[in-house]
């Protein structure tokens, strides 16, 4: 039986991976454990470690790290803390592979710990571009990894150009699409009433995270986004940001606006509630990867603000604008006039989890895999 250890640090990565992790949990040839760290362990961010437990997943370790002050220095120090703690857990668990997703610091720490313990590292969503600090971190994780589960053909080709062995790169699709279309969504009126909004009026789903290189402007950017929605007559369901540099500014601006008519601010939405809001929103706005990846499966129009998702593959529902008052107003008006598109998603068919589980259960994890060299 293969022992797999997944590292999770945020509500976002766990929401994307929940279906895949449950497939792994139920696989007869896999024993899965999760290391929970970062925002999962903070009541301020919803204590979302409880969602991991509710999904029936075994938690191998809880690795707390300070989340304040929300600065680049805190983020960097936490990587060191997590490397040390992950080494202790991985030595105890002795997994056959470490599974990671995306571009966050906890995933980089997991890759560093795994490769130095001679444990194969499997990386999901490698080969994608995203600008800001996220892109070099993502590529660093890819260079420390031994297996790649790419979301698209374009991402696969970029990994090959980075020197990764083509035989170790598998196009699985994005796991965040798995289960999106399964089951019935609550109806729109129910979703809006749940969040204290008027079902007779249009609404926007806002998810805006700070960018390290633009942390000082995060508060003003948030205020401009909120103003553009209010000026367009939209109600807004806004989520609090991740605990990254600049998040205090986003929180400050959302806190100032709390109580305004037509605005609801939530610390966290469980995955089903988030999906329902995204599916029914007349507009999604901000810079979340959910707008780039998942929203297209519902045809939801997305206004992507600023550089956080820079150069990432787009679906036809995404319009990019800078965080200026004029550009935001124009972008909101254009997407509302355009309306919802037919669902089509370049990021896959919603079956990534079963492909990832099959590959983790059957791919040879021998010494040859660990002898990594660039292919150029």
UniProtKB/TrEMBL annotation:
GO terms for molecular function: UDP-N,N'-diacetylbacillosamine 2-epimerase activity. InterPro entries: UDP-GlcNAc_Epase, UDP_GlcNAc_Epimerase_2_dom, WecB-like. GO terms for biological process: UDP-N-acetylglucosamine metabolic process. Its EC number is 3.2.1.184. Residues 24-360 form the UDP-N-acetylglucosamine 2-epimerase domain. It comes from the Bacteria. Keywords: Glycosidase, Hydrolase. It holds the Pfam family Epimerase_2. PANTHER family: UDP-N-ACETYLGLUCOSAMINE 2-EPIMERASE. This is GDP/UDP-N,N'-diacetylbacillosamine 2-epimerase (Hydrolyzing). It comes from Brevundimonas lenta.
């Amino acid at each position: 039986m293969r022992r797999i250890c997944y590292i999770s640090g945020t509500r976002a990565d766990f929401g994307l991976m929940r279906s895949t992790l449950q497939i792994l949990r139920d696989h007869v040839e896999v024993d899965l454990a999760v290391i929970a760290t970062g925002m999962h362990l903070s009541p301020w961010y919803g204590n979302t470690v409880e969602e991991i437990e509710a999904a029936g997943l075994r938690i191998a370790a809880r690795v707390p790290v300070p989340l304040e002050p929300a600065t680049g220095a805190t983020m960097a120090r936490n990587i060191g803390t997590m490397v040390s703690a992950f080494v202790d857990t991985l030595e105890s668990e002795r997994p056959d592979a470490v599974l990671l997703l995306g571009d966050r610091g906890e995933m980089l720490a997991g890759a560093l710990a795994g490769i130095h313990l001679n444990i194969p590292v499997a990386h999901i969503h490698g080969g994608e571009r995203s600008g800001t600090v996220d892109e070099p971190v993502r590529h660093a994780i890819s260079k420390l990894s031994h297996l790649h589960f790419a979301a698209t053909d374009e991402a696969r080709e970029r990994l090959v150009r980075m020197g990764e062995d083509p035989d170790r790169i598998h196009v699985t699709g994005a796991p965040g699409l798995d289960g999106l279309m399964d089951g019935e969504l609550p109806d729109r009126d129910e979703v809006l009433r749940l969040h204290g909004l008027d079902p007779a009026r249009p609404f926007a789903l806002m998810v805006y995270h700070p960018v390290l290189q633009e942390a000082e402007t995060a508060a003003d950017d948030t205020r401009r986004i909120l103003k553009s929605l209010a000026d367009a007559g939209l109600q807004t369901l806004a989520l609090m940001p991740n605990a990254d540099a600049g998040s205090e500014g986003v929180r400050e601006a959302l806190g100032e606006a709390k109580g305004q008519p037509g605005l609801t601010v939530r610390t966290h939405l469980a995955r089903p509630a988030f999906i329902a809001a995204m599916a029914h929103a007349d507009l999604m706005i901000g810079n979340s990867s959910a707008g780039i990846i998942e929203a297209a499966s519902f045809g939801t129009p997305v206004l992507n603000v600023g550089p956080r998702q820079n150069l990432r593959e787009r679906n036809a529902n995404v319009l990019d604008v800078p965080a200026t008052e004029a550009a935001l107003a124009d972008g909101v008006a254009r997407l509302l006039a355009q309306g919802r598109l037919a669902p089509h998603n370049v990021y896959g068919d919603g079956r990534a989890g079963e492909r990832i589980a099959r590959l983790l259960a059957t791919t040879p994890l021998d010494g040859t895999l660990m002898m990594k060299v660039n292919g150029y």
